[in-house]
């Protein structure tokens, strides 16, 4: 039976129709290469046995499973994502590991009707893509008991993330930036890079005690230069420019790939292509 998504949001449709196949192509990089930014904060996180946790925009479910391990079999974890194709992997992995206390639901977090039951809410690189971040935050808060903690991870500014900034700069030497009517998967990966903006959004949603922790480190953007090149030409800021340029991108593809390959090769090591990245780990409290 097909899963009904509780949204008319065009971003949700774009994720399912366009982005899911692209992300599935590079799932190993998304899960392993970029996992540093969730592995570090979740590694420090302690949750009591029996706690109830919500994972917002949980993707393939790896962070939801990590939360399930922390809360133990007497706890509860709900993973939500607007792409049911992603959630299938989470369901399989949970079953294989015997984590029966984690459940995955395809839904739009902005509109999903929650029970107020969660002690902790988490999101890794999911909050940046909501068409109305305050509405999403407010709805997440409605799912949290008084005193519960929200933790979410967002990218810092583009200039602090050369793994995306450099490919974008290379592609822009040959192609125009996307126009105002470009198809998009949401406000974008850097829409929550400014702490002042995010503080205001969280305050509007009713959260207090907001804190930011900067996390810098290398991420693997490809097992080798070929995969790194393929990924940058497909997703992210560079991939968006290529997609929106259409036939013009095809005309200049050889020049773009040659220039981008040279740049990515500078970062190649024996175990992959590694580049610098930077994120915020943001925490806030539901006062009640």
Features:
288 residues, 11 helices, 8-stranded mixed sheet, 23% strand, disordered N terminus, 43% helix
**Distance between the amino and carboxyl termini:** 38 Å
What Rg, in angstroms, do the CA atoms define? 19 Å
- The residue fraction in helices comes out at 40-55%
Mean pLDDT: 92
Number of helices: 11
Low-confidence stretches: 1-8
What is the 3D shape?
globular
Sequence of secondary-structure elements: HHHEHEHEEHEHHEHHHEE
Instruction: Find the count of extended strands (DSSP E, 2+ residues).
Output: 8
Major β-sheet annotation: 8 strands, mixed
Percentage of β-strand residues: 15-25%
Structural class: alpha/beta
Structural commentary:
There is one protein chain. The protein has 288 residues and is of the alpha/beta class. It has 11 helices and 8 strands. The chain has helices spanning 10-25, 27-33, 36-44, 62-71, 84-97, 133-142, 162-172, 195-205, 225-232, 236-245, 247-265; strands at 52-56, 76-81, 102-106, 118-124, 144-155, 208-222, 268-269, 272-285. Strands 1, 2, 3, 4, 5, 6, 7 and 8 form an 8-stranded mixed beta sheet that branches. α6 (133-142) links the parallel β4 and β5 (144-155). The longest helix has 19 residues, at 247-265. The chain is globular and about 55 Å long. The chain starts with 9 loop residues before the first helix and ends with a strand. Mean pLDDT is 92; it is low at 1-8.
């Amino acid at each position: 039976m097909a899963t009904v998504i509780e949204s008319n949001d065009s971003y949700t449709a774009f994720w399912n129709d366009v982005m899911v196949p692209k992300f599935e192509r590079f799932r190993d990089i998304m899960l392993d290469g970029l996992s540093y930014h969730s592995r570090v904060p979740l590694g420090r996180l302690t949750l009591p046995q029996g706690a109830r946790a919500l994972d917002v925009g949980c993707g393939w479910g790896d962070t939801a499973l990590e939360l399930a391990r922390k809360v133990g079999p007497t706890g509860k974890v709900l993973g939500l994502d607007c792409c049911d194709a992603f959630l299938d992997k989470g369901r399989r992995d949970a079953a294989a590991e015997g984590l029966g206390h984690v459940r995955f639901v395809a839904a739009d977090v902005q509109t999903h009707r929650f029970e107020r039951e969660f002690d902790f809410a988490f999101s890794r690189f999911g909050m940046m893509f909501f068409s109305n971040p305050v509405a999403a935050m407010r709805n997440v808060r409605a799912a949290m008991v008084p005193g519960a903690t929200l933790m979410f991870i967002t990218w810092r500014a583009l200039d602090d993330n050369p793994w995306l900034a450099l490919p974008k700069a290379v592609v822009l030497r040959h192609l125009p930036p996307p126009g105002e009517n470009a198809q998009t998967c949401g406000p974008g990966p850097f829409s929550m890079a400014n702490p002042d903006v995010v503080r205001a959004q969280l305050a509007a949603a009713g959260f207090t005690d907001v804190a930011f922790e900067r996390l810098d480190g290398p991420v693997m953007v490809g097992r080798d230069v070929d995969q790194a090149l393929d990924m940058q030409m497909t997703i992210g800021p560079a991939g968006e420019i290529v997609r929106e340029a259409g036939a013009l991108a095809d005309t200049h593809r050889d020049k773009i790939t040659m220039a981008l390959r040279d740049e990515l090769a500078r970062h190649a090591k024996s175990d992959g292509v590694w580049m610098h990245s930077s994120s915020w780990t943001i925490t806030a409290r539901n006062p009640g």
